[in-house]
Structure formats: structure tokens, C-alpha cells
Amino acid sequence: MNIVALSNRLASKVPHWHELEKLSKEDKIEVIALLSMSIADAEEIKTPADRTKEMVERCCGSWVGEQSAEDIIANINESKMSKSEPVNFG
């Protein structure tokens, strides 16, 4: 569908379509945002910063467990120490 046909179709559905066509790009974006918020809860519309924060929390969250950080470090250090007899190559 070409732009003229689309414009004519919208003009029949939207009473002030021709006035909307005359708005600046910024004003059109603002109207789009207001219309979007009217059909969706404002909380559902997330900003890029909100999406980034949500992704970081989901993918890079902190460890949740019963051990303290000191206990975890002690377990790691204990596992580094060999408990077997040294190998004799002689």
C-alpha cells in the first residue's frame, strides 16, 4: 500500500488525520508515545536503561546460598592443596 492510499484510509478513520500529518517529527513521536501508553500500562513500557538493568540482574546476579564468602574461599583454597603422596621419578 502506498503512502497516499494509507493516508486516505487513515483519514477516513481518524477525524484529525490531516492535522496530525502537519506535526513535526518530535510532536508525532510524542503523540505515538501517548497513544501507546493509553493502550498499555505505563509499567509495561520499559526504557532501555530498565531493560539493561533487568538483563544484568537476570544474567549477572549475585550468588545466593547459605555459605559465607569466607567459607567459599576456604573451600576453594582447601581444594587447591594436594592430599596425595608426591610422585617419585627416581
Explain what you see:
The chain is mainly α. It has a domain at 3-59. The chain is built from five helices and no strands. The protein has helices at 3-13, 17-21, 25-39, 48-59, 69-80. The longest helix is centred in the middle third of the chain and has 15 residues, at 25-39. The chain starts with a helix and ends in a 10-residue tail after the last helix.
* Order of SSEs: HHHHH
CA-atom Rg in angstroms:
31 Å
C-alpha end-to-end distance: 86 Å
Gross morphology is rod-shaped
Overall SS class: mainly alpha
Instruction: Give the biggest sheet.
Output: none
How much helix, percentage-wise, in residues?
55-70%
How many runs of DSSP E, i.e. beta strands? 0
Approximately what portion of the residues adopt beta-strand conformation?
under 5%
Number of helices: 5
- Spans of at least 5 consecutive residues whose pLDDT stays below 50 are none
What is the residue-mean pLDDT, rounded to a whole number? 78
How would you summarize what this structure contains?
The protein has 90 residues and is mainly alpha-helical. The chain has five helices and no strands.
Features:
single chain, 90 residues, 5 helices, mainly alpha
Helices and strands, with pairings:
Elements (H helix, E strand, L loop, with lengths): L2 H11 L3 H5 L3 H15 L8 H12 L9 H12 L10
